[in-house]
Amino acid sequence: MEKMEVLLETSARHIHVTQEALETLFGKGHELTKKKDLSQPGQFACEERVTITGPKRSLANVSILGPVRPATQVELSATDARSIGCPIFVRESGDIAGTPGCKITGPEGEIEISDIMLCASPRKKVVNVLRQILEKLSD
């Protein structure tokens, strides 16, 4: 049997921001600074970091993933969600309605958001892995 390599990636904690949120957190006119490209085309990890605060505590040094998005959302692992005092919601990325909010703090300001997506559903990740395997097998 031929050996096959499949790329698996995960990000236990990161946020996506709108341009408005970015400027509140980092200053007017601020643009995201690309640190490295991600495997998803057009997406990248940024140099900018923020602090996420829930009812119990804060998580510092949380990554921003670019580019800017139409909605600001926070994605945390179940462990991180529990540690900051938020209930756990497992959702597909972008499905944030009815999830708890939090405070996001940057060097120039802070924002409160009312809906955040806490724990990314593993289903989409499994589908992406299976797609990679099928693509490699069909070559």
Structural commentary:
The structure is a single chain. It is built from 3 helices and 9 strands; from the N terminus they run E-H-E-E-E-E-H-E-E-E-E-H. By secondary structure, it is of the alpha+beta class. The strands form 2 sheets. Strands 1, 2, 3, 4, 5, 7 and 8 form a 7-stranded mixed sheet that branches. Strands 6-9 form a two-stranded parallel sheet. Strand 7 and strand 8 form a beta hairpin. The longest helix has 17 residues. The radius of gyration is 16 Å and the shape is globular. The model has no long low-confidence stretch (mean pLDDT 82).
Strand and helix layout:
Blueprint (H helix, E strand, L loop, with lengths): L12 E4 L2 H8 L7 E4 L6 E10 L4 E9 L6 E4 L1 H7 L5 E2 L10 E4 L4 E4 L5 E2 L1 H17 L1
Parallel strand pairs: 1-4, 6-9
Antiparallel strand pairs: 1-5, 2-3, 3-4, 3-7, 7-8
Q: Helix- and strand-based class?
A: alpha+beta
Distance between the termini: 15 Å
Low-confidence parts: none
How does the overall form come out from the CA principal axes?
globular
- Estimated radius of gyration: 16 Å
Largest sheet: 7 strands, mixed
Number of strands: 9
Helix proportion: 10-25%
Number of helices: 3
Provide the residue-averaged pLDDT.
82
Quaternary organisation = single chain
Q: How much beta, percentage-wise? A: 25-35%
Encode the helix/strand succession as letters: EHEEEEHEEEEH
